[in-house]
Amino acid sequence: MRIAVVSPVFPPYKGGIGAVAAQDARLLRLRGVDVMAFSPAYKNEEPEEHVTRLKPWFAFGNAAITPSLFWQLKESDLIHLHYPCYGMDIFAAAAAVIWRKPLFVTYHMKTYARDWRNVIFVLHRLLIEPVILFCAKKVAVSTLDYAAAAKLRHKQLFELPFGVNVKRFSPRVNEEQRKKYALPEGATTLIFVGGLDKAHYFKGLDVLLRALSFCARNTKVRLLVVGDGGERKSFEEQARTLGVHELVQFLGNVSPEDLPDVYRAADVHVLPSLDRGEAYGLVTLEAGASGLPSIVSNLPGMRMLVDPKVTGERISVGDARALARLIDDAVEHGEKWRAMGQAARERVVQGFDEEKVADRLLEAYKGLVL
Q1: CA-to-CA separations, 163 to 5, 30, 103, 340, in angstroms, rounded
Q2: Is residue 169 assigned to a domain?
Q3: Which of these, 51, 98, 107, 243, is most buried using a 10 Å CB contact count?
Q4: pLDDT, tens digit (0-9, with 9 covering 90-100), for 258-275
Q5: Which pLDDT tens digit goes with each residue over 9-63?
Q6: How distant, in Å, are the alpha carbons of 249, 343, 357 from that of 140?
C-alpha cells in the first residue's frame, strides 16, 4: 500500500499540523507501509528522505499553490490530506477524482485571523472546503466535540485523536534541568509551549503573563516559555511592563530531543488559548505524558484533553484572574497538583499513545484501498 501524505507544513517547521503529519508518516513506515510526504518548499530546505518539497507557483504564509502535486499523486494508492492545506488541497482533491484514488482527510481546525486574511479563510470555507469534503471518502477529526462546535459534517466522519510518544515524554525528576534554568528550590514552575508569531496569536501567552501579575504568591512562581517568532519581543516587553519579567524565561525554540527534559523541569503546563484556532493542543498531551497537569481554556476540542480536578483544570477564555487563582492554588497545594499530573500520565498512556493511534489510522485506511 502506497500512501501519499499531504501537509501544508512539515518539520523542521514548528506547528501541530506538520508534527501530526510527520508522526503519521513515521509510524506507518514502521508498520511496513510505503509512505511519501508532500509539502511546499517555502525555503531552501535540505533534501529529506520520504519527503518531497514542491516548488510553489505562489506562496504566502503557510499557503502555497502547487499544481505539480496533481501529477505526484498519480502513483499513490491513497491520498491522506491534512487539512487546512491552502493551495494544495484542491490539487489533492482533483488527483483523487481524476486518478480515482481514495481521499482520506484529517480535519485539524477551522482557520481564523484577526486581520484581512480572515476574509480569505471565510471564502475558502464557503467555496473550497465543501469540495474537499465531498471528494473525501473518510474524514477524521481529533475530537467529535470540536467537530460539533465547528458544524463539521460528513457521512464517514469519525474521531481519531492525535497521539504522543509516551516513552519519549515520560515523568522523571530532573534537578539538573531545574538548576540549568536557575529555578529556586520550592518554586512552582509553569511551562508554556507554542509559537510566538502572528500565525499562533491564539495561544494566549498574553493571558498567562497577565495572570502572573495577579498572583498573590508570584514570587514563588516561575514560567518557562518554549517557542519563538516575530512576536517574542512584544511578549518580553509585556512581561517587563507587568513587572513579572524576572519570573519568566524565554527559552526560544527547543529541539525535539531536549523538549522532554524541559517538561520535566516544570510542575504545571498552561495553554490559555483565545479562540477556536486552537482545536486540540498536542502540547497538552506531551505535558500529560510527562506527568504534568494542565490548565487550558474551555474551548471545543482542547477541553476534552483535561478532566477537571482529575488531570488539570479549565478556565474561561481570556480569564487571567481565574488563571491566577489556579496558579496560586498550585503553589499552595502542590501535592494535589502532583497527583493530577500522575492521573494525566495514566490517561495519556491509556488513550493517546501514538502506537495505538497509528494502529487505528491503519485500520481506517482498510476498505478504501482496493
Answers
A1: 17, 15, 22, 20
A2: no
A3: 107
A4: 999 999 999 999 999 998
A5: 888 777 789 889 999 999 999 999 999 999 998 776 666 778 899 999 988 888 8
A6: 37, 27, 12
> Does residue 168 lie in a domain region?
no
Q: Containing domain of residue 210, as a range?
A: 175-351
User: Is residue 111 predicted with pLDDT exceeding 90?
Assistant: no
Contacts of residue 198, defined as CB under 8 A and 6 or more positions apart, other chains included, come to: 229, 230, 231
236 and 357 belong to one structural domain: no
- Joined together, the cell numbers standing for residue 254 give 527547543
Task: Please tell me whether residue 209 adopts helix, strand or coil conformation.
Answer: helix
**E-state strands within 184-238:** 188-193, 221-226
How would you classify the pairing of strands 34-40 and 221-226? unpaired
- Which DSSP string corresponds to 274-310? -STT-S--HHHHHHHHTT--EEEE--TTGGGG--BTT
Look at the chain and count its residues: 370
How many angstroms separate the CA atoms of 111 and 121, rounded? 6
Mean pLDDT lowest among 95-109, 171-185, 319-333, 354-368: 171-185
Long-range contacts of the stretch 280-283 (C-beta < 8 A, 24+): 280/16, 280/108, 280/109, 280/142, 280/143, 280/146, 280/162, 280/305, 281/16, 281/305, 282/16, 282/19, 282/20, 282/162, 282/164, 283/193, 283/194
Q: What is the domain count for the chain?
A: 2
Nearest to 105 by CA among 131, 138, 145, 143: 138
Do 319 and 196 fall within a single domain? yes
- The pLDDT of residue 216 is above 80: no
The closest of 184, 233, 190, 182 to 211, measured between CA atoms, is: 190
For residue 179, tell me if it sits in a domain.
yes
Average pLDDT value for residue range 84-102: 96
d(CA 343, CA 312): 9
pTM for the model stands at 0.88
